Amino acid sequence: MKKILIGTHNRGKFREISHLLSKKYKKISPLTLNIKSPKETGKTFFANSRLKVIFFSKFVNYRVISDDSGLCIKSLGNKPGINSARLAKRKGGFIKAMKHILKKLEKKKNRTAFFVCNLSYKDNSGKITSVEGKVHGKISNAIKGKNGFGYDPIFIPSGKKITYGQMLKSIKIKTDHRYVAFRKLKNKIKI
User: Fold this and answer.
1) Could you tell me which of 5, 75, 97, 186 has the fewest CB atoms within 10 Å of its CB?
2) Which phi and psi angles does 68 have, rounded to 5°?
3) How far apart are CA 71 and CA 114, in angstroms?
């Protein structure tokens, strides 16, 4: 069975990327190999996803896939953006980070937002392929739903009336930004 290292310590991301990958792969987590996460010093999702794939590939001699993703809110200058996970860490978790965002949006009319995922894949020859997926939507007025992870309970994708947190996982996983990026990756390479 072919091995692939999914370069993330985020269990939600690991589950989603595992689900998207073919069953022919044995999915390995950096946690099981005791590999720490690298410092995300990039200024873009693209830079951070490449940085991660290069870092994690130093520890294994097989394929690696990494992502950098986040929530961008128009009226907040596209923040938290690449600092989405760091905001949650600073605030003491995603629930507190979502409450912080909802408070900042209280007096704002524009609640449009988008989720971004940049996926980087390094094959056995060392070639890196990077793609980006985006899903547009808006921020809800409250935290809704227990499904998903991260900022899913405050994001309503365009054309829907419920948040990712309220959606069935089987539907969310086939419509979100990670899925959009993965489809692009599959169109570029055999994975």
Assistant:
1) 186
2) -130, 130
3) 6
Tokens of 107: 């007096």
Whether the Cβ atoms of residue 150 and residue 94 lie closer than 8 Å to each other: yes
* 68 carries an active-site annotation: yes
Q: Identify the active-site residue in 67, 68, 152, 176.
A: 68
Where are any strands of DSSP class E within the chain? 2-6, 25-28, 63-73, 79-80, 112-122, 128-139, 155-157
pTM equals 0.94
Task: Report pLDDT digits (tens) over 120-132.
Answer: 999 999 999 999 9
Residue 1 is predicted with a pLDDT of 87
Determine the angle formed by the axes of helices 84-91 and 94-105, rounding to 10 degrees. Answer: 100
Q: d(Cα 28, Cα 14) in Å, to the nearest integer?
A: 9
